[in-house]
Design goal:
Helix 3 links the parallel strand 5 and strand 6. The mean pLDDT is 93. The longest helix is centred in the C-terminal third of the chain and has 19 residues. The protein is of the alpha/beta class. The strands form three sheets. Strands 2-1-6-5-7 form a five-stranded parallel sheet, sandwiched between helices. It has a two-stranded antiparallel sheet with strand order 3-4. The N and C termini lie far apart (48 Å). It catalyses: guanosine(37) in tRNA + S-adenosyl-L-methionine = N(1)-methylguanosine(37) in tRNA + S-adenosyl-L-homocysteine + H(+). InterPro entries: Alpha/beta_knot_MTases, tRNA_m1G_MeTrfase_C_sf, tRNA_m1G_MeTrfase_TrmD, tRNA_m1G_MTases_N, tRNA_MeTrfase_TRMD/TRM10. It is an enzyme of class 2 (transferase).
C-alpha cells in the first residue's frame, strides 16, 4: 500500500516512524510520505490561505496549493483521496477495513476554518473522526492511518486477534486478564483457569455481549445478533 499525506506540518507525523507503522515500512508492505503543500504557495510570502468571500470568521485554505500538490503525485483511477472534515461521514472499523484493501490512499489535512469548497471536486471521500472539532487534520489522519494499516494482512502477525477485536462485529471485545490471579480482592474469573476451551469461549462470547450492552448499547442496534445473543441481552435487561 502507498499512503501520501498533504499537510502543512509534516513534522507532526513523527509517530509514523515507530512501532507497527515503522515495521510495515521496513518490510515493504507500506510506502508512506508526507507532502507540505506550502511549497506551492499562492504568492511570494508563502500564503496558502485567504479570507472567505461573503465574510466570516477565520481563514480558509485556498484550493490551488492543494490541487497543485495533488497533481505532483503519481495518481491512478484507483487512488482514494480523503479529505479530513468534521462535516464528513464518521470514520469506522468498516471503513478502515475497506481502505486496507486499497493500493493508494491520499489524505488531505486541514487547518484554520476549513477548505475552499472547490477542493471537493478532487476528492473521493470526506471523513470525520467524530462529532467534535480539532485544531488540525493531522491527528485524525494519524488515527485513521494506524487503524487502516494494521488491518493489512501482512502487518499484524495474529490475524485471529484482529477478527476478535472490538468493533469487528459491532461488538466490544470481552474482558481480558493477566497475572496476578487476585489483586486487592478482585479475582480473575475461574472459568479462565478451567482448561475447558468451549466453556471459555462461551464465557468470552457472553461477556462481549454484556460489555457492549453496558458500554455501547448503540452498537447492538447495528449488530446482527444470533438467537442466543438476543437471549443474553434480555437477561442483561432484567438484571
Amino acid at each position: 500500500m502507498r499512503i501520501d499525506v498533504l499537510t502543512l506540518f509534516p513534522e507532526m507525523f513523527a509517530p509514523m516512524e515507530h512501532s507497527i507503522m515503522k515495521q510495515a515500512q521496513e518490510e515493504g508492505v507500506l510506502s508512506f510520505e508526507t507532502h507540505n503543500f506550502r511549497r506551492n504557495p499562492v504568492n511570494k510570502h508563502g500564503h496558502v490561505d485567504d479570507y472567505p468571500y461573503g465574510g466570516g470568521a477565520g481563514m480558509l485554505l485556498r484550493v490551488e496549493p492543494i490541487v497543485d500538490t495533488l497533481e505532483e503525485l503519481e495518481m491512478t483511477e484507483k487512488s482514494r483521496v480523503i479529505l479530513m472534515d468534521p462535516a464528513g461521514k464518521p470514520f469506522s472499523q468498516d471503513l478502515a477495513q475497506e481502505w486496507s484493501q486499497e493500493e493508494h490512499l491520499v489524505f488531505i489535512c486541514g487547518h484554520y476554518e476549513g477548505f475552499d469548497h472547490r477542493i471537493r471536486d478532487y476528492i473521493t471521500d470526506e471523513v470525520s473522526i467524530g462529532d467534535y472539532v480539532l485544531t488540525n487534520g493531522e491527528l485524525p489522519t494519524m488515527v485513521m492511518i494506524d487503524s487502516t494499516v494494521r488491518l493489512i494482512p501482512e502487518v499484524v502477525g495474529n490475524a485471529h486477534s484482529i477478527v476478535e477485536e472490538s468493533h469487528q462485529r459491532n461488538l466490544l471485545e470481552h474482558p481480558q486478564y493477566t497475572r496476578p490471579r487476585e489483586f486487592r480482592g478482585k479475582s480473575v474469573p475461574d472459568v479462565l483457569f478451567s482448561g475447558h476451551h468451549s466453556n471459555i469461549e462461551l464465557w468470552q462470547h457472553k461477556e462481549a455481549i454484556r460489555r457492549t450492552f453496558n458500554n455501547r448499547p448503540d452498537l447492538l442496534e447495528k449488530a446482527e445478533l444470533t438467537d442466543k445473543e438476543r437471549e443474553w441481552v434480555k437477561e442483561f435487561e432484567s438484571e
